[in-house]
Amino acid sequence: MTRPLTVAIVGAGMGGLATAAALRRVGIDVTVYEQAAQFARIGAGIQIGCNAMKVLRELGLEARLRAQSFYPRSWNNRDWRTGDVKFDMIFGESAEQRFGAPYLLAHRGDLHAALASAVPDQCIKLGHRLVGLDETSDGVRLAFANGASAVADAVVGADGVHSVVRDLLFGASPVNFTGRIAYRTTYPAARLGAQKIDDCTKWWGEDRHIVIYYVKPDRSEIYLVTSQPEPEFRIESWSAKGDVGELRFAFKGFDRQVETVLAACPDVHKWAIVDRESLVRWTDGNVTLLGDACHPMTPYMAQGAAMAIEDAAVLSRCLDGIDRDGVATAFRRFEASRVDRTSRVQQTSRANIWLKEKTDTAWVYGYDAWTVPLAA
Ligand SMILES: Cc1cc2nc3c(=O)[nH]c(=O)nc-3n(C[C@H](O)[C@H](O)[C@H](O)COP(=O)(O)OP(=O)(O)OC[C@H]3O[C@@H](n4cnc5c(N)ncnc54)[C@H](O)[C@@H]3O)c2cc1C
């Protein structure tokens, strides 16, 4: 019997963990190398589009995510001052039937933990920051900052927007700072007292917006994320904090609901919003990129993680039954199968008009990464 293909995945974010679970499903031997010493539960929400849920269902995570997440009847879009409804995108059961899976609003930590639960602990090496890659006749050699090294038949760089794998393959290139920042946080909805708010609304202002939704089925936890101009701020990090007073000031005059949610907000993270132009190439020999490492996008369609999760399913289909000699061709097929879709989502997201008015959403949510035809 031939031995299974070995794949080293760099990064245990949404994309890396989804890839590990999807590759194991087709019998591939995976090891995930993550720079962090432990997983942290970041206070953020995440929308899990129907397209991502179709992938997560096959990874065995649907029941868990339904039980832990909020199931919205719609995604509402309202004017910041008048409250007029611009477009109410209906989700709930009708969208589930139409697109083949539910649309869920989750705590980011719950989605990450669900993905981690689909990968055995022994396959994940924490505290391993990749610093070098070398293709040799034995396979691809990985070197880590802690002095460790490893060899695998193939490497997947799922190491996010500041990808070291990308820099090693194609040279370093700066990210595109959009000149805008996001404040984001989750907090217990009990802080709102008796005040009622919508389940899930994007409040559209003139040069800024705020999105507010519940992330738990019993509405016990609330999430907010904003976007507004602040060209000088250039920290793009999970740990940078913002000033709640400045946040409240920035949304003064918005609808009463927004002021209510911001008045109760105890603490907030602040984040420079970045993206990149579409990359010309994602793969080189037996190394490929995936997720934000190759197609980072603004958060305005809530599809960044969804694209990484779709990548995982398509990559597993391309590698199914392949031996080491076939990896480079399979990686090129993966790239060719995914680049048009992810570029279109990057471009659409950058425009920040998604769902602002009646929008054709079927091309995003109707996509099924398990059945979509692969490139030749
Ligand atoms: C404000 C905001 C809101 C968002 N909301 C949504 C949403 O609602 N829905 C959605 O689908 N997407 C959303 N996104 C996008 C989503 O967060 C990203 O697209 C997604 O996290 C990308 O996953 P990834 O695995 O490619 O990268 P990451 O999640 O960034 O993971 C990369 C991993 O690689 C590790 N790593 C990095 N370098 C190394 C190294 N050298 N060696 C080893 N490990 C390394 C990192 O520590 C990290 O764990 C949002 C983004 C932002 C900024």
Task: Describe this entry's structure for a reader.
Helices cover 30% and strands 26% of the residues. The protein is built from eleven helices and 18 strands. It has helices spanning 14-25, 50-58, 62-68, 92-99, 108-117, 164-170, 244-250, 256-263, 304-319, 327-351, 362-365, and strands spanning 6-10, 29-33, 45-48, 74-79, 85-90, 104-107, 124-125, 130-136, 139-144, 149-152, 154-157, 176-188, 200-204, 209-214, 221-229, 269-275, 283-284, 287-289. α1 packs parallel to α5 (108-117) and α9 runs antiparallel to α10. The chain is globular and about 65 Å long. It binds flavin-adenine dinucleotide.
Bound molecules: flavin-adenine dinucleotide
Give me the count of strands: 18
Oligomer description: single chain
Radius of gyration, rounded? 21 Å
The helicity comes to 25-40%
Kindly report how far apart the N and C termini lie: 29 Å
The residue-averaged pLDDT reads 96
Q: Which shape, going by the Cα principal axes?
A: globular
Short note summarizing the structure:
With about 375 residues, the chain is an alpha/beta fold.
Please name the defining characteristics of this protein.
376 residues; alpha/beta; 7-stranded mixed sheet; binds flavin-adenine dinucleotide
Describe the SSE topology.
Blueprint: E1 6-10, H1 14-25, E2 29-33, E3 45-48, H2 50-58, H3 62-68, E4 74-79, E5 85-90, H4 92-99, E6 104-107, H5 108-117, E7 124-125, E8 130-136, E9 139-144, E10 149-152, E11 154-157, H6 164-170, E12 176-188, E13 200-204, E14 209-214, E15 221-229, H7 244-250, H8 256-263, E16 269-275, E17 283-284, E18 287-289, H9 304-319, H10 327-351, H11 362-365
Parallel strand pairs: 1-2, 1-11, 2-7, 4-13, 11-18
Antiparallel strand pairs: 3-6, 4-5, 8-9, 9-10, 12-15, 12-16, 13-14, 14-15, 17-18
Helix pairs in contact: 1-5, 1-9, 2-9, 9-10
Bound molecules: flavin-adenine dinucleotide.
Residues 10-16, 33-36, 46-47, 128-130, 158-160, 164, 182, 184, 225, 271, 291-293, 299, 302-306, 308 line the site of flavin-adenine dinucleotide (FAD).
